[in-house]
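Backbone-to-sequence.
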C-alpha cells in the first residue's frame, strides 16, 4: 500500500482524521452549546528526512495541528503515529518516555525561554529530565549543542535577555536537539525575527536536517520561505487541508481555488513576471470555526463554487500522482483515475 507521498516506505509521521475541538460554554450555567472546530479531520504523512510545509492564513489551525501532533494538548479524535507509536493513545507515563522522539521549536523565542535560567540550564534541562548523564557529560553535551547551532560557548552562563532574537531562537533549537529527536515541529520559527535573520535560521535548520537526518513539520505564513525549505506543502483553510502537493508542482500550478488565491499574493522576484502577476482577491470574511459552512468550508468565498459545494463536503482526493485536493470541481476534472486514487487514500487507515 502506498502512502500519501507515493512511496512504498512507511512514513515517520502518519496523521489520520485528526480533530481538535474546543468546547463553547454559554449562559449562567455554562452549558456546553457548541465547539470551535480548530482542526477538523486532517490527514497527512511525513516521510523520514522530509520537510512538510504547513501554510494558511491566521486562525486556520496550523499551530493547533503542530501542538496536537506532540500531544501538547489532548486531541479530540483521530490518530497520530510517530515512529510507529500512536502518541494519541499513550498514557502520561508512556508519553513522557516518548518525548525524546519528538520536539518543538516555538514561534516566540523570548516567551519560550525561562528568563531566570542561563543558556546552559535551558539547553541542559531536557538532559536533566530524561537522561542520567553526569555533570561533566551534560556540560560537554551542552557545549556540543551550542557549537551545532552557532553559539559561542562563552555565552553558556548568560541569560536570554542578553541575546538578540536570532540568538534566542538558536537557543531554542539547541534545546530541541538535546535528546536527539527524529521529528521536530517548527511552529513559525522565523515569524518573530528580523528579515535579515530569518534566512540564517532557516539555513541552520536545513544544515541540521542534512547532518542529523531530521524530519520537520514547518509551519509558516511566509510562502516564499516555505518554498525554499519544504519538500511538500499542505495548504490549510478553516481547520481542514485544502491541498497537499509537492512544492514545485504547487507553486507552479495550484489546483484548489484557495491555494490559487493564497499563492497569487506571493511577490515575484522577476520584475517582468511581477508586472503581469494577477492577484485573486477573495470576497467576504473567513467563517467562524465554531459555525463552519455546510458542505465545503471554502464555499462561501470560492469564486468557482458549485451548487453541491454548499451541501456536500469534498474529500481530500488524489487527483494526480502525489497531489491531493479537497475540491469537487478539481476531482471531477481529474476523471475516473482521480476518483480511484481518492478511494485508495480514504481507505488507507482502514486497511493498514
Amino acid at each position: 500500500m502506498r502512502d500519501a507521498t507515493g512511496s512504498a516506505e512507511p512514513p515517520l509521521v502518519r496523521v489520520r482524521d485528526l480533530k481538535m475541538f474546543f468546547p463553547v460554554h454559554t449562559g449562567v450555567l455554562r452549558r456546553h452549546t457548541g465547539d470551535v472546530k480548530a482542526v477538523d479531520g486532517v490527514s497527512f504523512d511525513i516521510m523520514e528526512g522530509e520537510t512538510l510545509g504547513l501554510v494558511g492564513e491566521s486562525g486556520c489551525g496550523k499551530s493547533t495541528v503542530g501542538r496536537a501532533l506532540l500531544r501538547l494538548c489532548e486531541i479530540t479524535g483521530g490518530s497520530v503515529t510517530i515512529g510507529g507509536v500512536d502518541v494519541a493513545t499513550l498514557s502520561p507515563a508512556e508519553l513522557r518516555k516518548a518525548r525524546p522522539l519528538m520536539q518543538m521549536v516555538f514561534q516566540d523565542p523570548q516567551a519560550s525561554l525561562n528568563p531566570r535560567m542561563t543558556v546552559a540550564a535551558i539547553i541542559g534541562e531536557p538532559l536533566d529530565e530524561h537522561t542520567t548523564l553526569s555533570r561533566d557529560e551534560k556540560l560537554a553535551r551542552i557545549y556540543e549543542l551550542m557549537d551545532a547551532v552557532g553559539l559561542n560557548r562563552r555565552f553558556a552562563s548568560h541569560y536570554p535577555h542578553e541575546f538578540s532574537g536570532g540568538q534566542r531562537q538558536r537557543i531554542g533549537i539547541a534545546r530541541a536537539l538535546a535528546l536527539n529527536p527524529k521529528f521536530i515541529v517548527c511552529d513559525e520559527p522565523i515569524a518573530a525575527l528580523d528579515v535579515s535573520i530569518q534566512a540564517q535560521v532557516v539555513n541552520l535548520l536545513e544544515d541540521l536536517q542534512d547532518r542529523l537526518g531530521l524530519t520537520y513539520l514547518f509551519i509558516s505564513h511566509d510562502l516564499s520561505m516555505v518554498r525554499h525549505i519544504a519538500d511538500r506543502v499542505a495548504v490549510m483553510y478553516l481547520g481542514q487541508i485544502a491541498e497537499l502537493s509537492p512544492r514545485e508542482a504547487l507553486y507552479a500550478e495550484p489546483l484548489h481555488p484557495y491555494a490559487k488565491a493564497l499563492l497569487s499574493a506571493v511577490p515575484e522576484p522577476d520584475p517582468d513576471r511581477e508586472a503581469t502577476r494577477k492577484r485573486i482577491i477573495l470576497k467576504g470574511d473567513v467563517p467562524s470555526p465554531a459555525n463552519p459552512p455546510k458542505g465545503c468550508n471554502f464555499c462561501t468565498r470560492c469564486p468557482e463554487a458549485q451548487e453541491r459545494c454548499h451541501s456536500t463536503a469534498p474529500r481530500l482526493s488524489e487527483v494526480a500522482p502525489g497531489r491531493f485536493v479537497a475540491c469537487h470541481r478539481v476531482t471531477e476534472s481529474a476523471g475516473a483515475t482521480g476518483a480511484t486514487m481518492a478511494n485508495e487514500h480514504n481507505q488507507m487507515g482502514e486497511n493498514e
